[in-house]
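My current task is to audit a protein record that another person submitted. I need someone to confirm that the token line plausibly describes how this chain folds. Take the sequence as given and treat only the tokens as open to question. This is what I was given:
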Amino acid sequence: MASVLDTSSIYNTYYNNINSSTGSSLQSKLDSMGTPEDADKLMEVCKDFESYFVQKIIEESKKSLENEDEKGEYMQYFSTMLNQSYADAIVDGGGLGLAQQLYDSMKTQYNL
């Protein structure tokens, strides 16, 4: 018998929306580039990409670890947000340097 509140379907919908909106959001920001004032916007997009990349690394790394704390019902629902917060903190602290490399490479492509 199905429960009154089917939390797994809510989570799956949320997770799918997050993944699809992140990629389309980054692409729409890139598409609106072209003027010298957009250098800051380009750096923001590069940092967003690096954060997304780091988040995926964290998620894949956690799959290889046995951690009882992460198996709880609520952790399954909120782990994506937690991983995103970790990734943002890593990027804000200097990150992997990927954002700067992307920025340097792309600013010539967009004539900034």
Summary: Residues 7-109 form one domain. Confidence is low (pLDDT under 50) at residues 1-5.
